[in-house]
Design brief:
heterodimer; A: mainly beta; four-stranded antiparallel sheet; B: alpha+beta; five-stranded mixed sheet; 3 helices; 22% helix; globular
Chain lengths: 371, 98
C-alpha cells in the first residue's frame, strides 16, 4: 500500500505527518528544530528519504538541515550563502539604494534528477545551488545581476525569492518568482535570465504595466504541460500558455483575487486551486469562511469547496508555500493555515478534514507520495 | 579549560548541555574562544557570528564575570577567571519580543 508523507514547516519547528493511501489516520512527528522558523522542507524526487529543511531565527541566522532517512534524523549542513562578486544594491523602502544582505532561505527546490543538487531561493533575492548535498552553496548570480535588479524593492515580506520551478523535459529551464519584483525565466540552467511579466497589470505600482515591480505571490506548473504556468499575484490570478512570455487574467468569478497559494491537480492539468484572501490589508479569508476555490477549466470559472472546512468565525491565512498535491490516483490536496491547522482532501477537494489542529503558524506544506 | 554557556536554541542545534568545555591554545580572547567553539561544533558556524563579516549577530550578547563584553575588542584577553575555567563565558540571546 502506498504511503503519504507531509512535510510541514511552521514558525516554531517542522513536523512530519504520515498516513497510508487512505489518508484518514495520520501520525504526527515533531517538532523538529523546535523554536525555529522553518520556512520550507522538501524531499528529493529521486530519493524520497533525502529531505532538506530551511531553519532560521532572527537571533541565530540560517541553518540548513538534511535528512537521509525520511525525517527520522537530521544533520546540519552548510549554511554559508555568500553573494558572488562585489556587493550590489537594490532599492530600499525609501527608494534609496540598499546593499544586498543575506537574511534567510525561503524555498528549497531539490533537483529532479540528482539528490545532492538543490536550489535555494533566498532573501535578499538570489538563487543559490548546492551540488554536494548541502555542504556548500554557490550563487547563480545571473539573476541578481539582471539589469533590472538594482530597481527591485522589497514588499512587506522582504525581497524574497520564494518560487523555483524546474522542468524535467527541459533541464536548462528554471522559472523563479520574487516578491515585489516579478517573475523570471532562465533557458540556460540559470546563467542568464529574462523577465516574464508581459500581461501583468498592477495598479499599486507607478507604471501598472512595468517590466518589474509586480508582487508575484506564487507560480504553479503541471509537469506534463510545462508551458502552462498559473500565477497567484498580489491581486489577480493569471495564466500563461507560453512559459511566461505573456500572461492573461483568469480570476473570473472568484470572490476576491487576492491570495497567496495556487496549485495544480496531479492528473488534471486544467484543474487548479486557490484560496482567496479578503485583501492585502486584512490577510484573512473573506466572510469568516475558509473556502478553497477550484477551477476545472484552467481558470475563469471557479467553484467554492467548503465541505469539511469552517464556514463561520474563521480568520486564517494560507501562505504561498502552504498548499500541495499528492500523486495518488484520487489526488490528495493539502494546505496549512496561519492558525496551525493542516487540512487534507483525499478526493481532489470535494471534501476536507483537519488532520492536525493546533500546530504553530504553518509556513509551508509539501507532500511525498511513497511507493 | 574554557567553559562556554550557550542559549537553549544553540544547545539543541549542537546537541550539547547548558555548558560546553573547550581547550583554547594561545591567548584566551573572544575570537579564540569562538574559533574553538566553531571548530568543535561546526553546526554553530554562522549562528553566533556572521560567517562572512565575522560580526556578532545583533541579538546575541557576550558576558563574563558580570561584565557585558559584547562591544569590547574581540581580540582583548578575557578575564583570568574565564581563562582558568572558574567562570563561564556566556553567550546570551537578547530578551526580545513581548
Amino acid at each position: 500500500m502506498a504511503k503519504v508523507r507531509l512535510l510541514v514547516g511552521t514558525h516554531k519547528g517542522a513536523f512530519v505527518l504520515t498516513s497510508d493511501e487512505r489518508r484518514q489516520q495520520w501520525k504526527v512527528d515533531g517538532p523538529h528544530f523546535a523554536g525555529w522558523d522553518v520556512y520550507h522542507v522538501k524531499g528529493s524526487p529521486v530519493d524520497p528519504d533525502r529531505l532538506y529543511a530551511a531553519q532560521s531565527r532572527g537571533w541565530f541566522g540560517q541553518v540548513v538541515q538534511r535528512s537521509d532517512d525520511g525525517g527520522d534524523t537530521w544533520e546540519p549542513v552548510g549554511n554559508q550563502f555568500q553573494y558572488e562578486g562585489a556587493t550590489s544594491t537594490h532599492k530600499w523602502y525609501d527608494n534609496t539604494d540598499h546593499p544586498y544582505e543575506f537574511l534567510r532561505v525561503w524555498h528549497l527546490e531539490p533537483s529532479l534528477t540528482d539528490p545532492d543538487t538543490v536550489y535555494a531561493g533566498v532573501e535578499d533575492a538570489a538563487l543559490f545551488r548546492t551540488t554536494d548535498a548541502g555542504k556548500s552553496w554557490e550563487e547563480l548570480s545571473g539573476l541578481r545581476t539582471h539589469p533590472s535588479a538594482p530597481s527591485w524593492a522589497p514588499g512587506a515580506g522582504g525581497l524574497c525569492l520564494h518560487t523555483i520551478i524546474l522542468d524535467k523535459g527541459n533541464p536548462d529551464r528554471i522559472v523563479t518568482a520574487i516578491s515585489s519584483a516579478g517573475a523570471f525565466r532562465s533557458d540556460d540552467a540559470g546563467k542568464t535570465w529574462r523577465t516574464i511579466t508581459k500581461g501583468l497589470h498592477s495598479n499599486y505600482i507607478p507604471d501598472p504595466d512595468a517590466e518589474v515591480g509586480h508582487c508575484v505571490h506564487h507560480i504553479a506548473m503541471h509537469p506534463s504541460r510545462p508551458n502552462v504556468l498559473y500565477m497567484q499575484k498580489h491581486w489577480d490570478v493569471m495564466r500563461s500558455d507560453n512559459s511566461g512570455d505573456t500572461w492573461h487574467e483568469v480570476s473570473g468569478n472568484l470572490p476576491t483575487d487576492f491570495g497567496f497559494v495556487i496549485d495544480v491537480h496531479a492528473h488534471e492539468p486544467e484543474t487548479i486551486y486557490v484560496v482567496p484572501i479578503k485583501s492585502d490589508s486584512d490577510h484573512f479569508v473573506p466572510d469568516g469562511k475558509l473556502r478553497v476555490y477550484r477551477s476545472r477549466a484552467g481558470g475563469n470559472e471557479w467553484e467554492a469547496l467548503t465541505n469539511g472546512l469552517p464556514q463561520k468565525d474563521c480568520y486564517v491565512n494560507v501562505l504561498r508555500d502552504a498548499m500541495t498535491v499528492d500523486s495518488l490516483e484520487s489526488c490528495g490536496v493539502y494546505f496549512g493555515t496561519t492558525a496551525g491547522q493542516v487540512y487534507a482532501s483525499a478526493d481532489g477537494g470535494d471534501s476536507w478534514k483537519a488532520i492536525v489542529q493546533n500546530l504553530p503558524a504553518v509556513l509551508s506544506v509539501e507532500v511525498q507520495t511513497l511507493a | 579549560v574554557i567553559r562556554i554557556e550557550l542559549p537553549s536554541n544553540l544547545r539543541t542545534l549542537a546537541n550539547v548541555g547548558r555548558e560546553v568545555e573547550l581547550k583554547v591554545d594561545g591567548p584566551v580572547t573572544q575570537r579564540s574562544v569562538l574559533d574553538a567553539l566553531e571548530a568543535a561544533y561546526p553546526m554553530l558556524r554562522g549562528t553566533i557570528r556572521d560567517q562572512i563579516t565575522q560580526r556578532r549577530r545583533p541579538m546575541l550578547r557576550f558576558f563574563a564575570c558580570e561584565e557585558d563584553l559584547s562591544d569590547e575588542s574581540i581580540d582583548a584577553r578575557l578575564p583570568d577567571e574565564v581563562a582558568t575555567g572558574r567562570e563561564p563565558y556566556l553567550i546570551v540571546g537578547a530578551i526580545a519580543g513581548g
